[in-house]
Amino acid sequence: MGGHKRLPFVGRASERTVLRRALLSCLAGSGALVLVEGEAGIGKTRLCEEILAEELSQGVLVSSATCRPATRAIPYAALSALLRSAIDKMSPAKKSGASLGLQALEGVLHLKDGPPVEQLPPEAMLADAVSEFFRRLSDHQPVVVFLDSAELLDEPSARVLAVLADRSPGRKMFVLLCGRDLRTAAPDVKRLRAQLLLSDAEHVRMPRLDDAEVMKLITRAVHGPSDAGRARLVKAAQGLPLYLAGELAGPASFGSDVPPTVQVLVEEINAQLDSEEQELVQMLALSPGRGIAPEALTEALFDGGKKLDEITRLAAGIPLIKLESGPPERWVLRHPAYAQVLSEIIAETERQRMRRKLTAALRNHGRDPVVLAEQCLALRNEIDGDELAGVLAAAAECHDASYEDIVQFLTELLALPVLHNDQRSRQLRYEQLAAAQQQLGDLEGADASLSRALEQEAVVRTPGGDLASARVQIGLTSWETGKYAPVSGQLPDPSGIDLPLFHDPSYRAVMKLLWCSRHGTADQTRSAAAEATSCSQFGKKGQAAAMMGRSVEAALDGAYRQAAFHARDARAAARASNQVDLRILASLLIFRFAPLTGGVGLATEAAEEMLAESEAMGLPTPQYATHIWLSILRHLQGNLTAAEQHRQLASLSAAASASARTQAKTALLAALLQAERGEFARAGASLAAAQRSYAKGIEDDAQLYSLALYAKAVVSVQLGDGKPHILPDTLQLWGTYPQTIAMLPFLSGLAALRQGDMRLAASRIDELKGHQVESPALAALGFRLQGLVALQRGDVQVAGESLRVAADSLDQFGLRLYAAQTRLEWAETLPDAQLAGDTVGRLLEYFGSQQVGWWLQRTRRLARRHRIPETRVRRDGAILTQRQADVVRLAVEGLSNAEIASRLFLSERTVETHLHAAYSRLNIASRIGLTAWAMENLPNLSTGTDTEPGP
Q1: Pairwise CA distance, residues 933 & 929, whole Å
Q2: 845 contact partners, CB below 8 Å, separation of at least 6
Q3: What is the DSSP pairing of strand 143-148 with strand 61-66?
Q4: C-beta separation of 893 from 199 below 8 A
Q5: Which of 82, 438, 495, 889 is the most buried if burial means most Cβ atoms within 10 Å?
Q6: Cα 597 to Cα 633, 747, 767, 882, distances in angstroms
Q7: 165/150 Cα distance (integer angstroms)
Q8: pTM for the complete prediction?
Q9: Contact yes or no for 27/142 (Cβ under 8 A)
Q10: Rounded-to-integer distance, Cα 349 and Cα 355, Å
Q11: Topology classification of domain 259-419
C-alpha cells in the first residue's frame, strides 16, 4: 500500500522465528508451508518481506505475486503472475528452457512466438506442469513461492497451488501464503487453507502490536515527538502499522483528513463488494460510531426479509466491519476513518434515504436508546422537538451511555426550546451534565454547568434525590480546580472572592472559611472563622456553619481536640437539618483535625461516610479526594496495603483527569508509601514525576506543599541524608493535610539526631511533648525521639522506658506503623531475659503482612540474635530462570514493564509473563512483595536506613 514513508520494523519476534525456521527447512531440502493471516494493515506483507530480505535468504529464488480485486475473476491470474515472477529472475540461458517440454504452461504464460493458445489445457495437466516447473527450479536453488493478498486468489489458481503445496515436501521449496482471513474467501481458496493446516503447515495469526511496541515504532520513526504527541499516535495506531503510517504521512493531497493509506484500502475493498454488501457497509458508515445491533440492522436494510443468521454470515465476510461482543452485540466499522471514506462514496440522496430508513428501524426496534439518539440528532431538522427531547433524555439515562455520550445528549437537550420554561427539569439536567463533566475531568465545564443549575428558581432538592445539593458540587469543584488559588505566589484578598451564586450566607461563610484555611494566612483564616461562627444568628440552619467556624478557631489556637469535637458536632447538626453539602464539608474538617488528637478512627469513619455518599451521588471529585484522604489515614493507621489500594483508586481518577494537580497529588502519595516500604528508587522517581506534573511549582500550592514536605522528609530521613531544617517557616501552613505537617517535627528531630545536632533534636522533643494535652499522638512521637537520643548517648535504661511509653501511646491512638517501629526500637534495648518472644513474633507478622522490607529484616536480625524462631512460609525455595531473575532485578529497581522490555529487548507482554511466573515461584502476590523478597535474597541491593543507630 503506497502513500507513506516506509516505517521501521519492530517486534514480531515469534512470527519471525516461525518464518526463519521454515526457510531453514527449505534450505535443508525438507520443504515448508506457512500461512500468515491477520487483519488489514497489521503488517503481514512487511513481515514476509523482512524475512525474505535477510541474509539467510541470499541465493533463494523468490517467486512472488500479489492478488488484486480486479483479477479475482480471471482464471489463473495469480498462477501466471507467480510463474512470470520466477522466469523474470532467471538468467537468459535458463529462461529459454524454463518450460521445455511443459506445453501446458504455454496456455498460461504464452512464452513462444505466434498466436496465443485459444483453449486452456486440462487442469490436471496444468497442475502437473506447474509442479514440474518448480521442481526443476528447486533442483538448482532453493525456491520461495510467495503469494500475497491470498484472500483475493482466483479459484483455478487455488486448485493448482493446492497440488504444488502437496508436492513440496522433500524439495527445496517454501510455499508462503499471506492474507487477511481465508475462511471468508472463495470456496476453493478456503479448501486450500484447510489443506495447508491439515498438512501441518505453520499457521501465523498476527495480533495487533501492543502499546509498548507501537511506542518503540514511533520513537524510531519520528524524531522527538512530545509525550502528548506519542500518546496521540499510540491511540490513533490502534496497534496497526497501517494506521500509524497514515497518521505520520498526514492528510491526503485532496484535503481529506483520512490518511491516504486508509483511503486506498477502503476504496479497494468497497470496489469488490456486491450491492448488498455495499449497502450494509454504507449503512454502518452513516450510523452512530457505537454501531448497530444485528437485529436492527436486519430490519433497516432488508425489512425483515432476511433472517438474522443470513445477515450475520453476509457481514462476516466483509473486511471493513466486525462484530463487537456485548452485551449487546453490535456490528461496527473496524476503524473510525472508514466512515469518512465511505461517506464520500455515497451520493447525498442515497445518504438521506439510508438515514431515514435506519432511524425508523431503530425507533421500531427500541432496544438501543443511545444509537437511536445519535441517529435522531443526525436528522434533527426532520424530527419533532418533543419527540427528540424524549429520545435524548432516555439516552442520557441509559446505563450503556458513556460520559461523552451523556455530555453530548444533555447539551443538545438543554438547547431545545421545549425545555426553556421548565426550570425544575433544567436544574436536574444541568446537575447531571456537571456530574458527567467531572467524570471526564472537565472541571471547568462542570463548574459552569453547576452555576447554570443554581440560576434556576427551583434550587431546593428533596433529601432522597440522586444528587446532593448543587452547592456542594460547585464548592468542591471550585476548590479542586484551584479556581481561587494564588497567582505567582500572591494570595488574593478573601473578601474579594466572587461568590454571587451562594445566596445562603451561612454556606457562603463556610466556603470562604475552607478556602482561607487552604490558601490564606492565619489572620485571614481567623477572620473567616469569626464570620462563620456568627452564622448562629440564622437559627437552626446556621448552627453547622457556626460550629465549623469554632472548629477552625480552636485549631488556630492549637486546641486540636476541641477542633475535632466542634467538627463532629457540625456534622451532626448538618445531618439533623438535612444540609447534605455542609455535612460533607464538616467531614472534611474532621479528617483534618481528628488525627492530630489521636482520633484516627473518627476521621476514617467520616471519610468512609463521605466516600459512600459521593459514590451514591456520582460525584467524581469528592470520590477522588476522599480516596486520597483514606490513603493517608490508612497509612497513619499502619495499614499500608489498604493505603496503596486507595491510592490506586485515586490514581485511576487522576489518570482520566486533565488536572495536573490531581496527578501530582497521587504521585506524592505514591512516593510516601514507597518510602515507607523501603522502595527508595521508586519514591525518588515519584517525587520527580510530581514535580514534572505540576509545572506551576508545588511550593506555591499549600495543599500539595504539605504533602510534598512529608513525603520528601520520609524519603530523606530513611535514606539518612535528611537535613535537620526540613520544616517550613510556619506550621500554620495546613493545606488540606495538617496531620502531615504535624509529623514534620519528629522527622526533623530524627534528621538532627543522625547529623549529631543534639540541640536541635532536644528542641524538637520539647516541641512535640508540648502537645501532650491537645495532641497526645504527637507527644508520643516526642517520647520516641527522646528515647532515640538517650540511646545515642548510651543511656539504655532511659531510652527503653521512653520508647516503651511511646509505643504504648502510639498503639492507643491507632498509629500502628509508628507504634510497631517504636516497639522494635524498645525491644532492641532489652536483655535476653526480658525480651518476650511473642512481642517479636507479632512484629514479624505485622511487618511481613505490610511488606515493610527494611523493618522486617531488622526484626529478623533481632529474632536471630535472641534465638527466637520465626514461623513463616519461605519464599525463596523456588529457583528462577536466568531471564526471570533479570526481569526481577530490574523490577525491584523500580523500572516499569515498558522500561524493562526496552532494556532486555523483550515485549511488554513477555515481561508481564516472567513477572507472574516469578510471583508464583516465590509465593508472593505483587511487586511490593517482590521488593520485600529481593531485599532479603538478592545481593547488592540498597536497603536504605531507618532509626537503627550506626556503628
Answers
A1: 6
A2: none
A3: parallel
A4: no
A5: 438
A6: 13, 19, 15, 52
A7: 14
A8: 0.47
A9: yes
A10: 10
A11: Arc Repressor Mutant, subunit A (1.10.10)
DSSP letter for each residue of 469-491: -HHHHHHHHHHHHTTT--BTTBP
Q: Which residues contact 279 (CB under 8 A, 6 or more apart)?
A: 301, 354
Question: Any idea which of 175-189, 367-381, 531-545 has the lowest mean pLDDT?
Answer: 367-381
Fold of the domain built from segment(s) 13-205: Rossmann fold (3.40.50)
Let me know how long the chain is.
951
**Which residues make Cβ contacts (< 8 Å) with residue 841, sequence separation at least 6?**
868, 870, 871
Round to whole Å and give the CA distance between 553 and 544: 14
Fold of the 743-810 domain: 1.25.40
Q: What SS3 class is residue 524? A: helix
| Domain ranges within the chain, ordered by starting residue | 13-205, 211-235+237-249, 259-419, 619-733, 743-810
Q: In this structure, are residues 574 and 547 in contact, taking their beta carbons and an 8 Å threshold?
A: no
Q: Quote the distance between the C-alpha of residue 104 and its chain's center.
A: 61
Q: Of the ranges 40-44, 121-125, 468-472, which one carries the lowest mean pLDDT score?
A: 468-472
Radius of gyration (Cα) for the chain, nearest Å?
36
Q: What share of the chain is helix, strand, coil (3-state, %, to 5)?
A: 65, 5, 30
> Where do we find the cell 525491644?
827
Distance between CA atoms of 916 and 389, rounded to whole angstroms? 51
Query: Cell numbers of 693, please?
Result: 506534573
Q: How many CA atoms lie within 13 A of 867 on its CB side?
A: 2
Would you say 768 and 779 are in contact if contact means Cβ atoms under 8 Å apart? yes
CB-based burial label for 749 (10 Å; 0-12, 13-18, 19+): buried
Q: Of 728, 714, 727, whose CA–CA distance to 760 is shortest?
A: 727
Task: Find, among 348, 440, 429, the residue nearest to 396 by Cα.
Answer: 429
Q: Which residues pair with 66 in a beta bridge?
A: 148
Q: Are 612 and 604 in contact (CB under 8 A)?
A: no
Q: Is 232 buried (19+), middle (13-18) or exposed (0-12) by CB count in 10 A?
A: middle
Q: How many degrees, rounded to 5, is the angle at CA 479 between CA 473 and CA 482?
A: 135
At 630-684, the pLDDT tens digits run: 888 888 888 888 888 888 887 776 665 556 777 777 888 888 888 887 777 778 7
For residues 903-920, average pLDDT: 75
Cell output for 608: 468512609
Angstrom distance (rounded) from CA 710 to CA 716: 10
Determine if the peptide bond prior to 207 is cis (ω within 30°).
Answer: no
Cβ-contact 829, 791 below 8 angstroms: yes
Instruction: Classify 656 as helix, strand or coil.
Output: helix
* Gap between the Cα atoms of 433 and 429, Å rounded: 6
How far apart (Å, rounded) are the C-alpha atoms in residues 895 and 887? 10
Q: Which three cell numbers stand for residue 832?
A: 535476653
Rounded-to-integer distance, Cα 353 and Cα 839, Å: 81
Q: How many whole angstroms separate alpha carbon 853 and alpha carbon 924? A: 14
Helices (DSSP H) in 440-521: which residue ranges? 443-455, 470-481, 505-519
Q: What are the angstrom distances between the C-alpha of 524 and each of 389, 482, 528?
A: 48, 18, 6
CB 77 within 8 A of CB 140: no
Q: 733: which residues sit within 8 A by CB, 6+ positions away?
A: 702, 705, 706, 741
- State the pairing for strand pair 330-333/202-205: unpaired
Is residue 261 within 8 Å of 308, Cβ to Cβ?
Answer: no
Asked if residues 446 and 477 have their Cβ atoms less than 8 Å apart, the reply is yes
776-793 and 816-827 are packed helices; what angle lies between their axes, rounded to 10 degrees? 20
Alpha-carbon span 134 to 168, nearest angstrom: 9
What pLDDT is recorded for position 271? 76
Q: Which of 305, 302, 362 is nearest to 330 (CA)?
A: 362
The owner of cell 467538627 is 567
Q: How many C-alpha atoms does 471 have within 13 Å on its Cβ side? A: 24
Q: Grid coordinates in use for 620?
A: 467524581
